[in-house]
Design brief:
The protein is mainly beta. It contains 2 helices and 14 strands; from the N terminus they run ββββββββββββαββα. The strands form 3 sheets. Strands 3, 4, 5, 6, 7, 10, 11 and 12 form an 8-stranded antiparallel beta sheet that branches. α1 packs across α2. The longest helix is centred in the last third of the chain and has 10 residues.
Length: about 150
């Protein structure tokens, strides 16, 4: 999975602890957790940084049920910054550890990411079908990534 950090494309991989790639981008992540039972959806919090530029994200992946396509995300009935996956691709949390299909990425400010680490956050995803999907992102998801991001603490 590739995202842009400023003008730098960054290949996301989630080996344990800190991620450092040849571009000078460092990062960390939480463990992947199930945040919805029907359909089964995993979430993994990630923090990426290069110099003083930082990105706070939560990656979403579907591991079971009929495939869904996410159009928008809402938090407290307000549209939230969400980027759907551009194509069906595997969601991998390390070499050979693929755990479903990547659905997309939620983007957070540093403040909202830190706040979610103490209270968690509820997200509603609008799908291409008639149903929406409610996610409960637990505080541990954010707190774990934050605790490992020693350059922020």
């Amino acid at each position: 999975m590739i995202i842009l950090l400023g003008a730098w494309p960054v290949m996301l991989s989630a080996e344990a602890g800190t991620i450092t790639v040849s571009t000078g981008v460092a990062g960390t992540h939480s463990a992947a957790r199930i945040v919805s039972a029907q359909p089964q959806i995993l979430a993994e919090a990630r923090i990426l940084a290069r110099g003083d530029m930082q990105v706070f994200i939560v990656e979403l992946a579907q591991t079971g049920g009929a495939p869904v396509t996410i159009g928008q995300a809402f938090i407290a009935a307000q549209a939230f910054d969400f980027e759907p996956a551009p194509r069906a691709e595997a969601f991998c949390t390390g070499a050979g550890r693929c755990r479903g299909t990547h659905l997309g990425t939620l983007f957070f400010s540093q403040t909202s990411f830190a706040q979610a680490g103490s209270a968690g956050i509820s997200v509603r995803l609008n799908t291409s079908g008639a149903a929406s999907i409610d996610l409960a992102l637990p505080p541990a998801l954010f707190a774990e990534a934050w605790a490992q991001a020693t350059w922020l603490n």
